[in-house]
C-alpha cells in the first residue's frame, strides 16, 4: 500500500486531459480523521476532502476505516466499482454502520448532473487520483472486466474484512439417516476425536455479504477410490478441468484470480485470500493441466509474478511451513515439465529479485512425490 505522502507532479496538459476524461468519486459526510483509500493509495480525510477526480477507466476498490476516540482504526469496509470515462459515482457516510453507502436521495441523476456542471468549482475539494500507482494497479487488475466485477462482488455491494455469519436453522443441520451403518457412526466419532472443529456451531454467511466466487473442487475427490487417491494427489488434472469449465472462457478464471487478490490486498478480505489460496493449491499441482491449458498457465504465471511481491510479510519467508512458497515451487516444476520453461524462468527470476526466493534443486525429484502404496483388504 502507498506510504508515500509526497506531492504528485504531473504535466499540465496531461492533467487537463485526465480531468476531462477521468471519473469522479464524490463522498459526503465522512468524519475528519477517517482513513480513506482508493486502490493502492491511502489517505487521512481532512476538513475539505469531498472525493477523488481523474479516476482512470477500469476497476477500482474504495474503502474507509473509521477512527476511535483513542486513535484505534476499525476494520476496512469498502466496495469495488468499474468506472467508465467521465462517470460520476456518489457515496455518503452511514453514521450508524460507519461505512460508505450509495446516496439516498430522491433524484440521484439530478445530483450527478449538478456535480458534472460544477466540476470546475469543486476542483479544490476533489483530490486527484495518484497516477504514480496506475501502472502497479493495472498490473494487478488489467484483465478484470465489468461482468466479472458484477458477478464476484457481494450482492449487497459492501466488502468487509470478515463476512457476517449466522447460525444455520435446525432443519439445515446435518443428521445421520435412519440407515446409517455402524462403520459410518464410528468414522463420525473418530472425526470428532481428531478434529474438535466438528463440535463448533454450524455457521453460514449472512445472505448477500460474501464475495460470490466460483466453487473450487478438492484436489482429491471425497468419493475417490483408494487406488485413485495417489493419482489425484500427484496430478489433479480433473480438478483443474472442473475449475476452468466453471467459466465461460479461461480468461474468466484469470479475471477472478486478479479480483480476489485485490479484495484481499486492499480490502483485507479474509475470504478472498482463502479463495485465491485454494485456486493456487489446485492449479499448481498438475503437469497434465499445464500441457493441456498452456495459454491459461502462461497468463497465470504472469499474474502471479505481479501478485506475489505484494504478499504479507508472514507469507514472504521461503520455508517448508510456507504453503504459498511450496505451491509456487510445485507450479514451477510443472511449468518446466509441461513445456512452459520460459514462463517458469521469468517467474523464478522475478521472485528471486523481489522476494529473495531461491529454488535450488527445482527439477530434482521430491521424495514426497513418490507413489503411495495402499494395501487393500483381501476380499
Automatic annotation (TrEMBL):
Residues 213-360 form the AAR2 C-terminal domain. Residues 22-154 form the AAR2 N-terminal domain. Pfam families: AAR2, AAR2_1st. Coiled coil: none annotated. It comes from the Eukaryota. Belongs to the AAR2 family. This is Protein AAR2 homolog. It comes from Drosophila rhopaloa (Fruit fly).
Amino acid at each position: 500500500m502507498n506510504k508515500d505522502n509526497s506531492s504528485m507532479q504531473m504535466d499540465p496538459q496531461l492533467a487537463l486531459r485526465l480531468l476531462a476524461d477521468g471519473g469522479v468519486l464524490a463522498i459526503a459526510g465522512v468524519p475528519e480523521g477517517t482513513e480513506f483509500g482508493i486502490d493502492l493509495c491511502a489517505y487521512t480525510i481532512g476538513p475539505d476532502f469531498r472525493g477523488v477526480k481523474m479516476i482512470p477507466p477500469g476497476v477500482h476498490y474504495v474503502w474507509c476505516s473509521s477512527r476511535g476516540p483513542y486513535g484505534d482504526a476499525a476494520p476496512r469496509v469498502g466496495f469495488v466499482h468499474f468506472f467508465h470515462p467521465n462517470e460520476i459515482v456518489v457515496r455518503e457516510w452511514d453514521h450508524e454502520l460507519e461505512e460508505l453507502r450509495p446516496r439516498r436521495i430522491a433524484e440521484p441523476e439530478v445530483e450527478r448532473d449538478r456535480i458534472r456542471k460544477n466540476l470546475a468549482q469543486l476542483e479544490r475539494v476533489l483530490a486527484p487520483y495518484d497516477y504514480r500507482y496506475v501502472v502497479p494497479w493495472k498490473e494487478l487488475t488489467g484483465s478484470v472486466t465489468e461482468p466479472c466485477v458484477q458477478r464476484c462482488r457481494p450482492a449487497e455491494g459492501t466488502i468487509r474484512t470478515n463476512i457476517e455469519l449466522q447460525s444455520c436453522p435446525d432443519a439445515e443441520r446435518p443428521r445421520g439417516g435412519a440407515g446409517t451403518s455402524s462403520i459410518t457412526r464410528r468414522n463420525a466419532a473418530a472425526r470428532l476425536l481428531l478434529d474438535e472443529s466438528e463440535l463448533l456451531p454450524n455457521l453460514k454467511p449472512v445472505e448477500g455479504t460474501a464475495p460470490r466466487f466460483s466453487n473450487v473442487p478438492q484436489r482429491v475427490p471425497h468419493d475417490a477410490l483408494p487406488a485413485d487417491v495417489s493419482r489425484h494427489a500427484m496430478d489433479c488434472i480433473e480438478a483443474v478441468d472442473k475449475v476452468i469449465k466453471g467459466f465461460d472462457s479461461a480468461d474468466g478464471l484469470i479475471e477472478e484470480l486478479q479480483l480476489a487478490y485485490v479484495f484481499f490486498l486492499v480490502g483485507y478480505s479474509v475470504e478472498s485470500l482463502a479463495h485465491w489460496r485454494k485456486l493456487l493449491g489446485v492449479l499448481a499441482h498438475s503437469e497434465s493441466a499445464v500441457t493441456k491449458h498452456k495459454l491459461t498457465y502462461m497468463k497465470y504465471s504472469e499474474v502471479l509474478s505481479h501478485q506475489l511481491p505484494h504478499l504479507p510479510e508472514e507469507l514472504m519467508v521461503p520455508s517448508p511451513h510456507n504453503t504459498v512458497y511450496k505451491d509456487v515451487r510445485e507450479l514451477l516444476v510443472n511449468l518446466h515439465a509441461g513445456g512452459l520453461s520460459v514462463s517458469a524462468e521469468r517467474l523464478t527470476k522475478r521472485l528471486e529479485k523481489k522476494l529473495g526466493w531461491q529454488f535450488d534443486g527445482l527439477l530434482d525429484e521430491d521424495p514426497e512425490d513418490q507413489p503411495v502404496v495402499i494395501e487393500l483388504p483381501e476380499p
